[in-house]
Design a protein that fits this description.
Layout: H1 3-14, E1 37-41, H2 44-54, E2 58-62, H3 77-85, E3 88-91, H4 101-107, E4 112-115, H5 143-160, H6 165-191, E5 199-204, H7 208-214, E6 217-222, H8 232-244, E7 249-253, H9 259-269, E8 276-281, H10 296-310, H11 321-326
Parallel strand pairs: 1-2, 1-3, 3-4, 5-6, 7-8
Length: 328
């Protein structure tokens, strides 16, 4: 084992005090000519874009699967190995992978890495005291912003592998055309919800970009990170909002425990207001691999369609975005 590899493994896999990588050798900036390119990606929302754009030229290893909370995820030795073996690493950044932040920083000294969400202009990012000044990382909840991230991933793949840049640019253009339609679907289908009912209540504050893009009032029990806890005062405030605006449905999230939302429901019942828990939404993780909801488009289609139906839109297509797109 080479000393530089051993030093990096100390930091990534073992976290031993005193270990540090040999930073004298910079990470490669172009592909080595062996295909498919070995890509390691952290979360599904990033991995799916890389698969769509990279096509046959990439082989993607995704570290975090469905129902996994990236805020709390702790890397293991298999993850460390996947990162070290990669030709290029893609991750979201903006502290989404909170407990992996140091690992990802260190791996960048040896493996070419790209923080997808951090490629967006700073002016479009939202900040919150909950993250002590760090931007809100949930930018994929605005499909238009995530389409810009797709463009940046396509550009990065083209720079890293110029031999196939035409393929990457073509795939990026095709993907962005589909994402533009998905974004328009979100605007139209949520615009169908009666204005008084456009209140999206969820477990944690992952939908602020969503609310701004699709004209929804977003309320949550927990802060931007799931490490935060719902307070009694926040619970009381949300109960008041649900009653005053006659909201009929609230939403759990696939990667967040339901306990706090269930307590909220119980509290509103004691105020003689019935609220139901609608189908779970996808926030920090997509659905299962191999299923429609296990893609970024499927994830967001599920969210748009589920929210619109639950909050009172009576003209949601039976197949959601897929049904809407066929008739456009």
């Amino acid at each position: 084992m080479k000393p530089t590899y051993q030093a990096l493994l100390c930091i990534i896999a073992l976290g031993l005090a005193g270990c540090s990588p040999d930073s004298t050798t910079p990470a490669p900036t172009t592909a080595n000519g062996k295909y498919p390119i070995k890509v390691t990606a952290t979360v599904g929302m990033v991995a799916d874009l890389v698969r769509e754009i990279g096509g046959q030229h990439v082989q993607v290893t995704q570290l975090m699967g469905s129902d996994v909370d990236p805020h709390l995820y702790k890397s293991n030795r298999d993850d460390s190995s996947a990162l070290l073996r990669a030709d290029i690493v893609f991750y979201s950044g903006l502290m989404l992978e909170g407990k992996m932040a140091e690992t990802l920083k260190n791996i960048g000294t040896k493996v070419h890495s790209f923080a997808a969400a951090e490629s967006l202009p700073a002016g479009v990012l939202k900040s919150d005291g909950d993250l002590r000044g760090h931007p809100d990382p949930h930018v994929w909840m605005n499909v238009d912003l995530w389409s810009q991230v797709a463009q940046n991933i396509g550009n990065e793949l083209a720079r890293f592998d110029p031999e196939h840049q035409a393929d990457y640019h073509s795939a990026t253009e095709s993907l962005r055309a589909r994402l533009a339609k998905l974004h328009q679907y979100g605007i139209e289908i949520l615009g169908c919800v009666p204005e008084r009912q456009r209140v999206l209540v969820t477990s944690h504050d992952a939908f602020r970009y969503f609310g701004e893009a699709y004209h929804m009032d977003v309320e949550s029990l927990q802060g931007i990170s799931t490490e935060s806890e719902a307070t009694l005062s926040r619970m009381t405030e949300l109960k008041r909002i649900l009653v005053e605006r006659n909201v009929s449905s609230v939403f759990t999230e696939s990667s967040v425990p339901k306990k706090a939302i269930e307590a909220l429901i119980l509290g509103t019942k004691q105020m003689n207001h019935d609220v139901r828990i609608a189908d779970s939404l996808y926030s920090d993780a997509m659905g299962r691999e191999g299923e429609y909801e296990g893609t970024y488009i499927g994830m967001m289609d599920h969210n748009f369609t589920t929210i619109a139906r639950a909050l009172g839109c009576d003209s949601v297509p039976e197949m959601g975005f897929r049904g809407w797109d066929i008739h456009e």
